[in-house]
């Protein structure tokens, strides 16, 4: 994004939408945009994202040093790490969407390879390791996985999305929470049914035809590469009996 004034207006509008849709509550979360000259426009620390004004936003240099007296988000280190790792990223949204954050707090992975739109759009959505908020540890926890993914769960913390624009990063946050909701319902109904490896290959080719990168191996079905062996009851009893005899 080129203009600081436009970036300020865009962040204010996005913060209001995220708050009204209950993706953020109280003083949670943070948003930033990288300008064409490398400076960042970011939400201030300790602000309700649904009630901000353009004047309260903070502009920093590419190292996070603020212009003027404003104090940027306490998790600025994380945003800076993401921008260093991803030259294609123009905006970052960190939020605590309730269902997705529930998965992150429970240490439960969102299922991979179960919904075509998610496979094509995200590949999959992994959980980044826990890092204490507002520290270098959080930045380091996110820096590795963000190289290959546009959306992450953050262990015992929340969720993170990036995009070429704030509009894209914001939409990805809504998609992430919607998918978490679908995943929760699927688990209540007996568990999600994974695509075959062949179908993920087809979706990967579709993703690449739209300009995306190949789907990472970690996003393929859990059973990828394993071999299923079927035994009759008598065969299973025989194998167990043989194992018992060999231990005597």
Report on the structure:
This protein is of the alpha+beta class and 248 residues long. The protein is 41% helix and 11% strand. Strands 3-2-1-4-7-6-5 form a seven-stranded mixed sheet, with helices on both faces. The chain contains eight helices and seven strands. Residues 224-229 have low confidence and may be disordered. The protein has a single domain, classed as L-fuculose-1-phosphate Aldolase.
Write the layout of secondary structure elements.
Layout: H1 4-20, E1 30-34, E2 40-42, E3 58-60, H2 76-85, E4 91-95, H3 98-106, H4 116-122, E5 127-128, H5 136-143, E6 151-154, E7 158-163, H6 166-188, H7 197-209, H8 233-247
Parallel strand pairs: 5-6
Antiparallel strand pairs: 1-2, 1-4, 2-3, 4-7, 6-7
Helix pairs in contact: 2-5, 3-6, 4-7
